[in-house]
């Protein structure tokens, strides 16, 4: 997921994406602990996607605050 793709989404879409990513991260953590996850790099990718979504949300909120 690229930041440029995220910037085209609405705040509601970003927040739902964030919830989805947190759920996925939760499930991946359990799979790692249970030794069921073979591709552990997926956990890192999800963590970085969460950071990207949070960054874009912060940018949108700062833009809205400066416009007022």
Automatic annotation (TrEMBL):
Signal peptide residue numbers: none
Domain of life: Bacteria
Keyword vocabulary terms for this entry: Ribonucleoprotein, Ribosomal protein
An annotated GO BP: translation
GO MF annotations, alphabetized: structural constituent of ribosome
GO cellular component: cytosolic large ribosomal subunit
Entry's family note: Belongs to the universal ribosomal protein uL29 family.
Protein name: Large ribosomal subunit protein uL29
Species this chain originates from: Candidatus Anaerobiospirillum pullicola
């Amino acid at each position: 997921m690229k930041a440029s793709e995220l910037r085209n989404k609405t705040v509601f879409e970003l927040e739902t994406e964030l919830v989805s990513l947190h759920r996925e991260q939760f499930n991946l953590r359990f799979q790692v602990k249970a030794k069921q996850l073979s591709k552990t790099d997926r956990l890192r990718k999800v963590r970085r996607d969460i950071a990207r979504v949070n960054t874009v949300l912060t940018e949108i909120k700062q833009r809205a605050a400066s416009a007022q």
